[in-house]
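EI: anyone free to look at a 295-residue chain?
SC: sure, send it
EI:
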Amino acid sequence: MYTNNMKILLFIILVLNVYSNVSDQKINLEKDQWIGLGFFLAPYELNKIPKYYKQCYSNDRFFLKLPYNSYHHKILSAVKWHKDVLELKTESGEPIYCKQSSKGIIEELIFYKDLLHAKKKYINTTFWTKQNFMYVHDRKRRVKKYKTPRFQALKVKKVDLAPVHENHSIRIHLETEKGLPGFFDISYTGVNRVGEIEGLKEYFFLQDPRVVFGMNNDIFKHVINKNVVIGMTIEQVLLTIGKPKKFYQNNHNTTLLYYNKIQDNEIEYHFYKKRLTNIVDIADDEWNSDEFGEL
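SC: here you go
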């Protein structure tokens, strides 16, 4: 049987896991499982386009470099391994040889089904910001991080290959309600990548958070503005101001304690049957570590 403290701790962990929704699953294929798979030659960022691919060549001795502009976005089929070199062929039967890195991947190859699956799953859908940023290009085509409001709706306008990277395979092109463009790169399946699968979920809600957390428009506005109000549920308070420093559970009564750095004081949030009923400022000497559970 769980104690009351364990129950509320498990509940808080569950809510925060729904909020973060990060997967650490990876797909590591044995070399023989690569044979027959299709790959794209990945693009480079516009301001970093090379004259030749850096790890893929036109012959098995790496004398003939592969010209970038001629092979960009070509579909290749994996044919044979030569130790740490993968031989592939174009649709016309032309051989291409790519070196494997010490991490067991070839950064210039992207599993072609990543693009097909991501287009089918995400195109014309809407995401909502979770980590409050996306990426944009400045006037010099440099990648910059752009801050977004909490839970801002972003429409997926296009899905494309991500530029050469050991983690990312797919670039999701986004647009705000006001038409500001941006993008985000993810590791879609993990094939030939070392990053987390579906990394997009770490940064965005793929469903409207109002539906996920049962919020009406008024509560939703308070959560966006990080304003806790009477009547909120425990999970809505957690969504608004994050994890508490301590908590206390007694039957239907729950207390969450937070430290306010700006005002240098502690605040108690009192719940009855998981609904917020009272907010109380307390002094430092009123903390009682024997009564409160640590998180």
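EI: The helical segments are 4-20, 31-34, 68-71, 112-122, 209-212, 217-224, 234-241.
SC: 👍
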